[in-house]
Each structure stands twice: as structure tokens, then as C-alpha cells.
Write a structure and sequence with these properties.
Number of strands: 13
CATH superfamily: Ribokinase
Distance between the termini: 10 Å
Number of helices: 10
Shape: globular
Order of helices and strands: EEEHEHEEEHEHEHEHHEEEHHH
Radius of gyration: 17 Å
Length: about 300
């Protein structure tokens, strides 16, 4: 049976230099999970407007169920202005008072989270009191054996010590990158090298796994007391939008299937490297990258 992956939080249009692309880490995560053979749903909220209708159509085109995406009668569908640095790293300008700031935890979303094998959420979508309350109440509906992945995804000023600590208490897997880990290390007084900091935060919050990514310099995975390091793969970068989300989806599938950690790491790295080589967050994944996941 296909596992059910739920992206919980923001869904939006990224206004990239090359045009408009589906965005939001939960939506990107759901897309890559679907591409790797999982059932995928997004629990979010869009405006009852042309951009919202277009976004729902795009999600469906990508194989992502939209029955748990709420429609807001007044707030607009979210857009984010994205500029790219010389290294392909994105810089985001995130507009406020949008539909997902009013996420209301309607029944379809509650059913989706309660049935999920994996739920991925972040800090950004918790910036308003209403959406934060809804997301945290939905997470409490998740099965005890489900993976609850916190992608901290620190954007602009939309995070705090209290929010991150409470989100970690609701999670059992953490995704963090090289700019975010130092913030968490200072926040929670983590010492030592990266591997030591990752192991300590996993111990402190009883996490089953941690994925730490550092762009072109590779990544580190931690699960059940085991650490795996990977130097990364050479790639001609188009942009890095969505690469971390693809890595997280592959990591989660590997954990569900109880693959050896080095196997998970190699497969997740190859997928993320391919995403970096393509424009946008949701490129079509080639069959040779999908095959190991589809065969399991």
C-alpha cells in the first residue's frame, strides 16, 4: 500500500525571475513524495480567486490531492517574490495577510493528518495565531507511529525560540540546513561539531531522525544513533529551490522502508542534486532516480 504523505502549511506561487512556479515547502515536499510513489496531500488554504484556482489545478496536475486545501472568501492566494544569487541560492520576499495565514483546520485537513504516515510542517506557516493554533492542533491528531517532520525553514523574522521549541516537541524528525543549525545551536546551547550538535538536538527532543543539508558541501543524516555523512555530488546549478524538500521526501520514504542509512543518503542526495540542476522546485524526476523508491 502506498504511504500517505501530507504537506501541512503554506502553499503559494513563487514569482521567480523565469516566471511563476508552484511553491511553499509543504507543497514541494508533497510533490516529491508523489513523484517517488507515495500518495500526497496538501493541507493549506488559498484564496477564492483566479490564482487560487490556478494553484489547485497545478497541484492536481502534479498528482497531489487538493481536497484538504481550504478556500478563503476574502484573503488572497499567497505569492512570494524570489530572487536568485550568483550561486543559485534563493532570497524570498514573503507577503503577509494571505490565505494560509487563516488556516482553519477544517474536517478534510483533520482526516488527512490523522491518516498520514508522514506529515511535514514548518515554522513559516505558523506566523499568525490562527494558523499556528490550527497547525498545532492538527499535528496532535497524527498517529503515534507517523513521522512528523519539522522543516524549520527560517524565513525573514517569522520565528522565535518559543515557536521552534514547541514545534520540535511536536515533531519526531528534523530537517535543518547550514544557515539554520547555527541559530538552533545558539538557541538551545548545542556545542561541538555539526555531528555532535545534531545528535544532541535529537537526544534532547527525542527525535527519530535529523537531516542536515549544506548545499554543495553535502549533508549529514542521523537516525537511531547512527550518523551518515555525504560529500555531495557535482552539479551545474540552475537554482536550489525545492532541493531540500526533495531530499526530505526521499529521507522520509527511506525511513519508512527501513533502508540502511547510507542507502537513504545516497538516493536522497542524487535526487536533490538533480533538482538543483533544473529550474524550479518541481521538475519531472527521471525514471532511474524514481525506480528504487517505486520498486519498494
Amino acid at each position: 500500500m502506498q504511504p500517505l504523505f501530507v504537506g501541512l502549511g503554506e502553499v503559494l506561487w513563487d514569482e521567480l525571475p523565469g516566471g511563476r512556479q508552484l511553491g511553499g515547502a509543504p507543497a514541494n515536499f508533497a510533490y516529491h513524495a508523489a513523484a517517488l510513489g507515495a500518495q500526497a496531500r496538501v493541507v493549506s488554504r488559498v484564496g477564492r480567486d483566479p490564482l487560487g484556482a490556478e494553484l489547485l489545478a497545478r497541484l492536481q496536475q502534479l498528482g497531489i490531492a487538493t481536497d484538504a486545501v481550504e478556500l478563503d472568501p476574502t484573503a488572497p492566494t499567497s505569492t512570494v517574490t524570489v530572487s536568485l544569487g550568483a550561486d543559485g541560492q534563493p532570497c524570498y520576499t514573503i507577503h503577509e495577510s494571505v490565505a494560509w495565514d487563516h488556516l482553519a483546520a477544517e474536517p478534510a485537513g483533520s482526516r488527512a493528518v490523522a491518516a498520514a504516515d508522514v506529515v511535514c510542517f514548518g515554522t513559516l506557516a505558523q506566523r499568525s495565531v490562527l494558523s499556528r493554533t490550527s497547525i498545532q492542533s492538527l499535528l496532535r491528531l497524527a498517529r503515534r507511529d507517523a513521522l512528523r517532520i519539522l522543516d524549520v525553514n527560517l524565513r525573514q523574522h517569522y520565528h522565535s525560540h518559543e515557536l521552534i521549541e514547541h514545534s520540535l516537541s511536536l515533531a519526531n524528525v528534523l530537517k535543518v540546513n547550514e544557515t539554520e543549525l547555527p541559530i538552533l545551536a545558539a538557541m538551545f546551547q548545542l556545542s561541538g561539531n555539526v555531528a555532535a550538535q545534531v545528535a544532541e538536538i535529537a537526544r534532547r527532543f527525542a527525535l527519530r531522525g535529523v537531516a542536515f543539508t549544506r548545499g554543495g558541501r553535502g549533508s549529514l543524516l542521523y537516525a537511531d544513533g547512527v550518523t551518515s555523512e555525504h560529500a555531495g555530488l557535482p552539479v551545474q546549478v540552475a537554482d536550489t529551490v525545492g532541493a531540500g524538500d526533495s531530499f526530505t521526501a526521499a529521507f522520509a520514504l527511506g525511513l519508512l522502508r527501513r533502508w540502511p542509512l547510507p542507502t537513504i543518503h545516497q538516493r536522497a542526495t542524487r535526487i536533490a542534486a538533480f533538482v538543483c540542476s533544473q529550474p524550479g522546485a518541481t521538475p519531472v524526476l527521471p525514471e532511474h532516480l524514481r525506480a528504487p523508491f517505486l520498486a519498494s
